[in-house]
Design brief:
Radius of gyration: 19 Å
Strand content: 15-25%
Number of helices: 15
Strand order of the largest sheet: 2-1-3-4-13
Amino acid sequence: MDREELLKNIAELKKNKNAVILAHSYQDEDIRTAADFVGDSLELSKKAAGTDADIIVFCGVDFMAESAKILSPDKKVLLPSREAACPMAGMADAEGLKELKKKHPGAVVITYINSPAEVKAESDCICTSSNAVSIVEHYKDKKIIFAPDKNLGAYCQALTGADMVIWNGWCYVHDEFSPGDIFIAKHEHPNCILLVHPEAPADVLEQADFIGSTTQIIKFVEENIEEMNEDAGVIIGTEVEIAKMLMHRYPHKRIYPLADHAVCLQMKKTTLENLYSSLLNEQFEINVPEEIRIKAAAALNKMLELS
């Protein structure tokens, strides 16, 4: 089948099966076109929690589909590609977190949504890149264990002054940004402001003109790009799909990725072909043991309450 046939058949299956397709912003244009909702982890968590669909097809990576199942246990949740696994989520483990909690009794555990269900179950509250600072701020009067992203944790600590123990995990897409990338990008694209995701290292964030989640970066561009003169523009310091999407939306404006190497290979495992197959055969269903789900749901719901 060609692209248009696949999109048509996906739409028909979705209607017939009362399914909803959620897609992370890092998915390519084809998947975003097929989706009902596109957004970052916080937005999609809210959609998963509130949907009346019978089937949720999550075009993202494993922890996102798990989160949808945790919040909507009565729904069938499908992940189109079994290979779509987040490396950073794999850096966190429940046993390690339990040991850390023993070393710091009474500490509040804030876990980034990029984590397995078992780790969420050991947490007091979940956060996303959109709300991490405000959630750390909420708990800053207590000692905080923050897992698994060291860069996001350090960013939150710098802004809030919270007493934090930070896990040594990272996103390879953002952690590989460097001051050298910024030097090259600004040399090639003068008069452009730099927008960076908080999963990037501190020496990159220090040079950013704006720091925010994917959705916050998109919103910043939407609200400011038309007012910029023809010599000005933006450099997008997150996964390249965001820059591509904005370049397509504003072809007359100067919009560039910070670095072409910022590609999440796991996100790109989702294709129209395996999305169609997943819907057709209802394959690669995500399940979470109920004991773990209940504990993880409490932490996720705490995040939604504070958001």
